[in-house]
Amino acid sequence: xxxxxxxxxxxxxxxxxxxxxxxxxxxxxxxxxxxxxxxxxxxxxxxxxxxxxxxxxxxxxxxxxxxxxxxxxxxxxxxxxxxxxxxxxxxxxxxxxxxxxxxxxxxxxxxxxxxxxxxxxxxxxxxxxxxxxxxxxxxxxxxxxxxxxxxxxxxxxxxxxxxxxxxxxxxxxxxxxxxxxxxxxxxxxxxxxxxxxxxxxxxxxxxxxxxxxxxxxxxxxxxxxxxxxxxxxxxxxxxxxxxxxxxxxxxxxxxxxxxxxxxxxxxxxxxxxxxxxxxxxxxxxxxxxxxxxxxxxxxxxxxxxxxxxxxxxxxxxxxxxxxxxxxxxxxxxxxxxxxxxxxxxxxxxxxxxxxxxxxxxxxxxxxxxxxxxxxxxxxxxxxxxxxxxxxxx
Length: 393
What we know:
Blueprint: H1 9-13, H2 16-25, E1 28-31, E2 36-39, H3 42-50, E3 55-56, H4 85-93, H5 99-103, H6 106-119, E4 125-127, H7 128-133, H8 135-145, H9 149-163, H10 174-196, H11 202-208, E5 210-211, E6 214-215, H12 218-231, H13 234-248, H14 251-259, H15 264-274, E7 280-285, E8 289-291, E9 294-296, E10 301-305, H16 306-309, H17 344-361, E11 366-367, E12 373-374, E13 383-385, E14 387-389
Parallel strand pairs: 2-10
Antiparallel strand pairs: 1-2, 3-7, 4-14, 5-6, 7-10, 8-9, 11-14, 12-13
Helix pairs in contact: 6-8, 6-17, 9-10, 10-11, 10-12, 13-15, 13-17, 15-17
């Protein structure tokens, strides 16, 4: 009998054997103790993403969302909406993510990567997450939202705390609830300030935006800013760390990409497939109905196991092999359907540019695996610390 507990620290260290067992023995899995369904096959995860009429985002995308304080549930954003309201708000905020706007960010992203790597040049070592991977995404999203540089470390600390789960505790720790409230109140102040004195940032644009001649509420704007500072920061940070970690573990692939920089985009995509930052997302059943012969009840949680779908042997041959030459087009790391990740193009750009500079400036990096520290979260997989050394260039 398979036991799958997304809060389990041992599972966080390596979830893939559990995923393989679920796909083989219980692809539609029910956990009676905690009370959730889990889809592990690619086809079912894809269906969960696309069929919002049966698997709603209302209520949030985390298993634990119901445990947040009343204060913290105010942060539920467009991720907790379905059409038609979701589509109307998304159409507004997507103006900040047009292909041209995203492409225009490349020079500034590259300048940041060069600057942060340059700071570590003389030391010949760095803590890759704190000194590099966590800084670039935070800078990019902060610039978009108008968050001053002096506040960014504190916001990133709150973001990390919100995602962290304590060993043996099924739910959001008190520190996470407190950090969520602090982040919420930070953006309450931001929105109030932009209402008084608009600027050129996305927060100001949202304050001025209208849907059907109606302005967005402060709650909607605050929720989106909260989402951006976490989703636009944490997932890309983990992607940048996962990429260098797995490339070191595969010397043949490392040699290839070092000799042929044109493979860097595929390095990004294979990292997204092989060990994605976002391992799962939750949905809620809208009404009693039968799915694949299983009776599902209104309100039950369904976990879409993205990390498992991306290793489904029915879609990806030899799925446990890290291969820069495989077809990754069917990976589900950014979701599908109406909730496809708004920042996918930006995440890909940040990763490509940052990793180009890593290979250019510290190509011989060596990660101290004994001192690596993993994040412990039900949704996100990656490293909290990744110490590395390198030689002078």
